[in-house]
TrEMBL record:
Mg(2+) binds at D98. It comes from Actinomadura viridis. It catalyses: 4-hydroxy-4-methyl-2-oxoglutarate = 2 pyruvate; oxaloacetate + H(+) = pyruvate + CO2. This is 4-hydroxy-4-methyl-2-oxoglutarate aldolase. SUPFAM superfamilies: RraA-like (SSF89562). It comes from the Bacteria. InterPro entries: RraA, RraA/RraA-like, RraA/RraA-like_sf. Keywords: Lyase, Magnesium, Metal-binding. GO terms for biological process: regulation of RNA metabolic process. Its cofactor is Mg(2+); a divalent metal cation. PANTHER family: 4-HYDROXY-4-METHYL-2-OXOGLUTARATE ALDOLASE 3-RELATED. The keyword Cell division does not apply. The lineage of its organism: Bacteria, Bacillati, Actinomycetota, Actinomycetes, Streptosporangiales.
Length: 159
């Protein structure tokens, strides 16, 4: 998919929401886009693992981990499953781990930082609920576009 978020802002202006959070890029895909699926969880990646082990169909999983860097919500095994299952990307308002391995995966991955500590696996949290961080609301079914400049959201597909 060929796009630049800056060009999308120029072309679609007020129709787009721009996330203010300054994420780090971890996956091999620096540019990714797709319909949004959301998870809200805190220091527990059971729901993240469950979802990313299903068919992604080009979607993007947005995980609101409350901005916690206390433990990782995704590592190389879960990210590898996501890449193999056709997910376009994962945006985590929290931490990842296995950073060296994530670099080689054909998956868009943005997160706040990294921590080698594992998270709980109880599947506590919520799926397909609106989540808010970076000054924007991420709603299930929104269309997310991400590149080196940042993340923008639209309520409909733009490309």
């Amino acid at each position: 998919m060929d796009f630049a978020t800056a060009d999308l802002i120029d072309d679609f202006g007020a129709e787009l929401r721009s996330c203010e959070t300054q994420f780090r890029q971890y996956g091999a895909r620096t540019r990714f886009a797709g319909p949004v699926v959301t998870v809200r969880c805190l220091r527990d990646n059971g729901l993240v693992k469950r979802l990313l082990n299903t068919a992604g169909d080009g979607r993007v999983l947005v995980v609101d981990g409350g901005g916690s860097l206390a433990s990782a919500l995704m590592g190389d095994l879960i990210a590898g499953a996501a890449a193999g299952n056709g997910w376009a990307g994962v945006v985590i308002n929290g931490a990842v781990r296995d950073v060296a391995a994530l670099r080689d995966l054909d998956l868009g991955i943005k997160a706040l930082g990294s921590n080698p500590r594992k998270s709980a696996k109880d599947a506590a949290g919520e799926v397909d609920v609106p989540v808010t961080f970076g000054g924007v609301e991420f709603r299930p079914g929104d269309h997310l576009y991400s590149d080196e400049d940042g993340i923008v959201l639209a309520s409909r597909p733009l490309l």
